[in-house]
Design goal:
heterotrimer; A mainly alpha; B mainly alpha; C alpha/beta; A: mainly alpha; MetI-like fold; 10 helices; 74% helix; C: alpha/beta; Rossmann fold; 2 domains; 24% strand; OppC_N (chain A); transmembrane (chain A); Peptide/nickel transport system permease protein (chain A); membrane (chain A); BP-dependent_transpt_permease (chain A)
């Protein structure tokens, strides 16, 4: 918890970081309150005053972002989409870093055979085609937000594990580790009390990048038609638009979900990079 | 050096073997019966039995696994459940289509990204740097399929410059041969997915190059190069950029493997009949010999790529000695 | 004959706190073949001065006044290309950090050759011959031109940097603490080599160091810098015999001399803040001899004797102050 507070404080110091955090805050607010402030039920077909279905109606006072081919309100769908994006992205990022951090720590610290075995396993996962593998898992295990999180976590931890391991390899030789060993601390105590706190900043940067990547991937899964059929996500809105074959007549259907993803993910990237700059001031480029 | 290569080759073999095994059992152990959709319940019992026997599905799982390994050893990837055609024949053609799109586009992305990143880092602190970084991050943050849709909306539908999809005009080449790739029609269809993919993929090398350059520019040897009276150009290209290329060059082979895997998205939007689209089709139809074959191919590409990347690093950085 | 004339050079750094006056009114004439030692604590501006002469200041530095005349041409106003041409061919430098100054992924021979080809259009064979000759000159086996920097020891790398500096036989050589990273024995070897080469090739040298002893051994004249100002200058003999600025006295005390009875005395306090420098004498806040007017009145250079000057209001009383300055308790007084 402490580390998250320091992270926010460090990011807040830079102008871009502050801006990113504000944008992220807005998205979190939308994820919480979005469904409450949505003007329409996102799945209801809307009819015009002439009792005709509002097919592909352009933006208007009643429907800010227009309607879909089935007459559904796009603005309401957008407001419902923030929640799954953040929940799926956030859980995947947490899972990714939890697995990647532990594997990287153990492999890097113990070295030898343990390292060798863990790294071969990592190599196997590095060889897996990212998106196709997720889709296979989803098509075989059923499509829900939970399976999406699991499937994504299963292939995403690999990069984090490698990055963390490289850092641990150099930390292992530091005097403070030797000092802890002399005091008779056990390997596990040294690993989690001495080494782990030193890789946490790096792990945090990785969490940010994993979050960004998970949000994009979740949308891609939805777009390819393998998303959770029960929930409305920005990816599924785009999938509907693409599948309807009419999206090129209705830019208001296609543009908003992409913009939302782009702005959210950019904010995550900028926040991560702002923190990286705090860790390594040379990146600021004076 | 020889020992190092031998050890790496051994590791690669182990990794590949683990992967083959993982995939074989994955497809059979996850919930859901992949054969259910292939073998139609409408068929009578005798016909179903015959079909099961034909694909070896009546054998115990472990026997199936051994047979699979035996076949792979002679580069036999098996038969498609759907078409009964050899998997390799199906993959081969699609792989060519994917590589024709992905390879040139990744090379262009890395070249533009490397120079672009180096130049904005060199002229750091200005408005140009800020806007390029903002723009590249935004493009990197957008889903590739959405960028492709926007590109089609703008360049194909509104401006009418490019076709909306496919590799050639449908029906134009009823019997495709390699000559198809030498036509203007093919290039016309290639242009838009190539441009979209290049613009998207160049963001990563560009941003990576920029941050590496920012560290390199502060090094003493860059200052000494300038003191020696080298021109700004010589300092930039001969020292700062030369050294910053190291981390970038090593990402290329691995990213290439990922880009082939990631072609799923762009091929779906542009109806490009490549490996990605084949995988999606095969997954939706539970045609898992095809999926397994495609996965294996991508794994080999990625694992080889990582190996090449490590060798490349040793070649470019004399400080690294392989043991 | 003056080969390098620094005439009233002012240089500022833009910092977050505001502009910092890193160099103020630096005046220095270097005659051909002469060796000048520039001494002072870190942060006094000596390295900045060398970088300014080479024209490779950091991006936040600006020359706000004065001239750097090399062979009669003012490099500051001559334009970037003219300055580039003068670098290395006219004024070369032995870099400070031997480990980081060489590009790790290029062969040392190529890095020396590069300095030559940036200025001359010699045929390749001639460049290679010159590189071999240079390496031999500094006592490195010419066959090692094809090795990479990490294959050399620290002392050997420093020799390579000297060979590189001599590549175009520059009339002026700058050396920025060329031996800080090396042990005393290697340091001694390197300086012996530099003295021999100077005898053979006759280049002028500006040696920057915080070690007065090195200056005494290697130089003809001394320039003492403090807070971006020259506070004393004169011949080595003059300054050793009659140091005339309290700061020089302090440095002099800090010198470990054989047969010395007590420990070297260091000057307490820190160098001045150059964003908001002291109003009077910049050394006054640390000076044990400061009078009230020292804190308000900025002194000009005062002539001590012919060719010897010091920036102190109490120059005339220096003969009486000097014995006090040698006592450790003088420097222990309450310092702000």
């Amino acid at each position: 918890m402490q580390i998250i507070f320091t992270f926010l404080k460090a990011v807040w110091k830079t102008p871009t970081g502050r801006f990113s955090l504000i944008v992220l805050g807005i998205f979190v607010a939308l994820a919480i309150f979005g469904p409450l402030i949505a003007p329409h039920d996102p799945m209801v077909r809307n009819y015009g005053p002439d009792r005709k279905l509002l097919r592909l109606a352009g933006p208007s006072w009643d429907h800010w972002l227009g309607t879909t081919l089935m007459g559904r309100d796009i603005a309401s769908q957008m407001l419902h989409g923030a929640r799954p994006a953040l929940i799926v992205g956030g859980l995947t990022a947490l899972g990714t870093v939890a697995i990647g951090l532990n594997i990287g720590l153990i492999a890097g610290y113990f070295g030898g055979r343990i390292d060798s075995i863990l790294m071969r396993i990592t190599d196997v996962f590095l060889g897996l085609p990212f998106l196709p593998f997720i889709i296979v898992v989803l098509s075989l295990s059923g499509r829900s937000l939970t399976t999406i999180v699991i499937a994504m976590t299963l292939v995403m931890w690999r990069s984090t594990a490698r990055v963390i391991r490289a850092q641990v390899l150099s930390l292992r030789e530091m005097p403070f580790v030797a000092a802890a060993r002399i005091t008779g601390a056990s390997d596990l105590a040294i690993l989690y009390r001495e080494v782990a706190p030193n890789v946490l900043p790096l792990a945090l940067v990785n969490t940010a990048f994993a979050l960004a990547w998970a949000i994009i991937t979740e949308a891609s899964i939805g777009f390819l038609g393998f998303g959770d059929p029960q929930s409305i996500t920005w990816g599924s809105i785009l999938y509907d638009a693409y599948a309807s074959q009419t999206m090129y007549r209705a830019p208001w259907w296609v543009v908003p979900p992409g913009i939302a993803i782009m702005v959210l993910v950019s904010a995550v990237y900028f926040a991560g990079r702002a923190y990286e700059e705090v860790l390594n001031p040379r990146l600021k480029g004076i | 050096m020889t020992r190092y290569i031998l050890r790496r080759l051994f590791y690669m073999a182990v990794t590949l073997f683990a992967m083959i095994t993982l995939m074989f059992f994955l497809f059979r152990m996850l919930p859901g019966d992949p054969t259910a959709t292939v073998i139609s319940p409408a068929l009578d019992e005798a016909a179903r039995e015959a079909m099961r026997r034909r694909f070896g599905l009546d054998q115990p799982l472990f026997t199936q696994y051994l047979a699979y390994l035996r076949n792979l050893a002679v580069l036999d990837f098996g038969m498609s459940f759907r078409t009964s055609a050899p998997v390799w024949d199906m993959i081969e053609l699609r792989l060519v289509n994917t590589l024709l799109l992905i390879l040139p586009s990744m090379i262009a992305a890395y070249v533009i990204g490397a120079f672009g990143g180096a130049l904005i880092a060199w002229h750091r602190g200005g408005k140009a740097e800020g806007s390029v970084v903002l723009f590249a991050t935004a493009v990197q943050s957008a889903p590739l399929f959405w960028l492709s849709m926007l590109a089609i909306l703008l360049f194909s539908i509104t401006l009418g410059w490019f076709p909306t999809g496919h590799i050639v005009t449908p029906g134009k080449f009823p019997d495709p041969t390699w000559r198809m790739y030498l036509t203007w029609d093919f290039l016309h269809h290639l242009a838009l997915p190539f441009l979209v993919n290049t613009c998207y993929q160049l963001c990563f090398p560009l941003l990576l190059m920029r941050s590496t350059m920012l560290s390199t520019i502060g090094e003493d040897y860059v200052e000494l190069a300038r003191m020696k009276g080298l021109t700004e150009r010589q300092v930039l290209y001969g020292h700062a950029m030369r050294n910053s290329l190291l981390p970038l060059a090593t990402t290329l082979p691995m990213i290439l493997g990922w880009a082939v895997a990631g072609s799923v998205v762009i091929e779906s939007v542009f109806s490009w009949p490549g490996l990605g689209l084949l995988m999606i089709e095969a997954i939706t139809r539970s045609d898992y010999p095809v999926v397994q074959g495609a996965f294996l191919l991508i794994a080999v590409l990625t694992i080889l790529g990582t190996f090449v990347a490590d060798l490349l690093y040793g070649l470019l950085d004399p400080r690294i000695v392989y043991r | 004959m003056t080969i390098l004339h620094i005439d009233g050079l002012d240089l500022r750094y833009a910092t977050d706190a505001g502009p910092a006056a890193a160099l103020t009114d630096i005046r220095l004439r270097v005659a051909g073949g002469e060796a000048i030692g520039i001494v002072g604590e870190s942060g006094c501006g000596k390295s900045t001065l060398l970088k300014a002469i080479m024209g490779v200041m950091p991006r936040n530095a600006t020359i706000t006044g004065g001239a750097i005349r090399f062979d009669g041409t003012d490099l500051v106003t001559a334009g970037a290309e003219a300055w580039r041409r003068a670098r290395w061919k006219g004024i070369a430098m032995i870099a400070q950090s031997a480990l980081n100054a060489l590009n790790p992924v290029k062969r040392v021979g190529a890095q020396i050759a590069e300095a030559i080809t940036a200025h001359e259009t010699w045929p390749r064979a001639e460049v290679e011959a010159r590189v071999a000759e240079l390496l031999a000159l500094v006592g490195v086996d010419p066959g090692r031109a094809r090795d990479y920097p990490h294959q050399f020891s620290g002392g050997m790398r420093q020799r390579v940097l000297i060979a590189m500096a001599l590549a175009l036989r520059p009339p002026v050589l700058l050396a920025d603490e060329p031996t800080t990273a090396l042990d005393v024995i290697v340091q001694d070897q390197i300086f012996r080599r530099i003295r021999t080469l100077r005898g053979e090739l006759g280049f002028a040298m500006l040696l920057v160091t915080h070690d007065l002893a090195l200056v005494v051994e290697n130089c003809d004249r001394v320039v003492v810098m403090y807070g971006g100002l020259v506070v004393e200058e004169g011949t080595v003999a003059d300054i050793m015999a009659a140091p005339s600025h309290p700061y020089t006295l302090g440095l002099y005390n800090a010198l470990a001399r054989p047969g010395q009875r007590h420990q070297p005395i260091s000057i307490p306090g820190r160098p001045p803040d150059l964003v908001d420098p002291p109003a009077g004498c910049r050394f006054a806040p640390r000076c044990p001899f400061a009078l009230p007017r020292c804190h308000t009145e900025a002194p000009a250079m005062q002539v001590v004797s012919d060719g010897h000057a010091a920036r102190c209001l109490r120059v005339a009383e220096m003969d009486t102050l000097r014995p006090t300055a040698a006592l450790p308790e003088t420097w222990e007084g309450p310092q702000p």
